[in-house]
């Protein structure tokens, strides 16, 4: 992370930003650091129980969360054990908690085997024992345990269709809960009679803990009928076994108020709002006004880009609703309805649509990236946009509109050298967008 303000901007009275790209990247790095497990988890660790502590969990941040638990656990090390599953490449070394890597966003056998072993670990616990569940975004596919009567291939087919459909994360996780043997609170029931404490890093707009990783330890208010409604809404073709499972009600989840969850606790460790507030504070410390538009923006990435472009244009031309220079910050999770065959990612799609909407508007720069370091399923976190992006694309014979129509934001920004590549950050509070109007 950059630390010298003088490297980023000239004196504020001159309204000059010396290096807009460096400033935007500094804000992104600050946001990610603010929601890292090493920063946010230690203060929320529970006291050790009288009995054993078994750590389980799933998500892109699960390994880093487990590492932080080990580093700060105040109980006897020999009474701490467990297993967490994270995405390939997102592991971290631990001594007593095993880390398994599996596939995301479509589940694989490694995730299925890890889920089965996790269930075995929590069997036979008593009321003096504690199950510490570490949950973050990505856990829905990583904790792969098909409901009875369903196969892993059934779940893979549904996941692929959901990812291409344009459904939002709440809708996708509603379906996933009702096809699982562990999600929607069922994992907590496997831990009885041990007490369950769940530590969460939210990748969900609105931060509903029951939606993060499809809520494996929390009761679920949605129903099989709701899951069927999502399937019908998006015209998703599902395997016959899946439809029969939902129509029969066999996939129903335990509901809020269920006494079996009494005494359990969940703690939200990190959210998109915390990341945005950290970035806003950093911008202000560097002498640039910052305004958080929202931490929970959803919708088609290209439509969200049009709204952001309109706000940036109003500031650039009329100093409304805020005076320039300033930076606009937003978070949440956009969606992409896939119609082309390009290499996409919702943040790259957002930026490509933003470039077309701004059409080279002077002094407007932008960054959009996923805080987990992976934009969709590609190897980049996101990308950067400058006033000359379209001009440089034209000079390189890159047709921006054609790339957008083909859902090929990755290919577009890669050709321009404007991708942001961080590698796995081992946290995940979803999208981070910053638009600098200088």
Automatic annotation (TrEMBL):
GO terms for molecular function: glycerate kinase activity. Pfam families: DUF4147, MOFRL. Residues 326-431 form the MOFRL domain. GO terms for cellular component: cytoplasm. Keywords: Kinase, Transferase. Residues 24-247 form the MOFRL-associated domain. This is Glycerate 2-kinase. The lineage of its organism: Bacteria, Pseudomonadati, Pseudomonadota, Betaproteobacteria, Burkholderiales.
């Amino acid at each position: 992370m950059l630390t010298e303000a003088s490297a980023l901007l000239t004196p504020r009275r001159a309204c000059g930003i010396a290096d807009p790209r460096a400033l935007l990247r500094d804000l992104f790095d600050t946001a990610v650091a603010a929601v890292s497990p090493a920063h946010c988890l230690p203060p929320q660790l529970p006291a050790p129980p009288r009995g054993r502590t078994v750590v389980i969990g799933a998500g892109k941040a699960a390994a880093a969360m487990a590492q932080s638990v080990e580093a700060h656990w105040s109980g006897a090390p020999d009474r701490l054990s467990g297993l967490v599953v994270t995405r390939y490449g997102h592991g971290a070394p631990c001594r007593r908690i095993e880390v398994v890597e599996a596939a995301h966003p479509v589940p694989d056998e490694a995730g299925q085997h890890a889920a089965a072993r996790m269930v075995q670990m929590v069997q036979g616990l008593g009321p003096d024992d504690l199950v510490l569940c570490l949950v973050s975004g990505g856990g829905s596919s990583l904790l792969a345990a098909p409901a009875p009567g369903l196969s892993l291939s059934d779940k893979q087919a549904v996941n692929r269709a959901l990812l291409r459909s344009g459904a939002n994360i709440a809708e996708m996780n509603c379906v996933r809960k009702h096809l699982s043997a562990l999600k929607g609170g069922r994992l907590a029931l496997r831990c009885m009679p041990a007490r369950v404490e769940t530590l969460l890093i939210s990748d969900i707009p609105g931060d509903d803990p029951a939606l993060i990783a499809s809520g494996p330890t929390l009761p679920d208010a949605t129903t099989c009928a709701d899951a069927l409604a999502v399937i019908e809404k998006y015209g998703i073709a599902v395997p016959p076994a899946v439809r029969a499972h939902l129509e029969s009600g066999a996939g129903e989840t335990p509901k809020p108020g269920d006494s079996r969850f009494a005494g359990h606790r969940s703690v939200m460790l990190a959210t998109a709002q915390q990341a945005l507030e950290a970035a806003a504070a950093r911008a202000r410390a560097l002498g640039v006004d910052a305004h958080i538009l929202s931490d929970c923006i959803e919708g088609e990435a290209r439509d969200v880009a049009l709204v952001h472009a309109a706000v940036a244009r109003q500031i650039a031309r009329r100093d409304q609703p805020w005076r320039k220079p300033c930076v606009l910050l937003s978070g949440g999770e956009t969606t992409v309805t896939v119609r082309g065959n390009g290499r996409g990612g919702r943040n790259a799609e957002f930026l490509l649509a933003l470039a077309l909407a701004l059409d080279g508007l002077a002094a407007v720069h932008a960054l959009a990236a996923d805080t987990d370091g992976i934009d969709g399923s590609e190897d980049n976190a996101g990308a950067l946009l400058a006033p000359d992006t379209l001009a440089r694309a034209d000079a390189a014979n890159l047709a921006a509109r054609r790339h957008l129509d083909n859902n090929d934001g990755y290919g577009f920004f890669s050709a321009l050298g404007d991708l942001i590549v961080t590698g796995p950050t081992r946290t995940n509070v979803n999208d981070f967008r910053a638009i600098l109007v200088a």
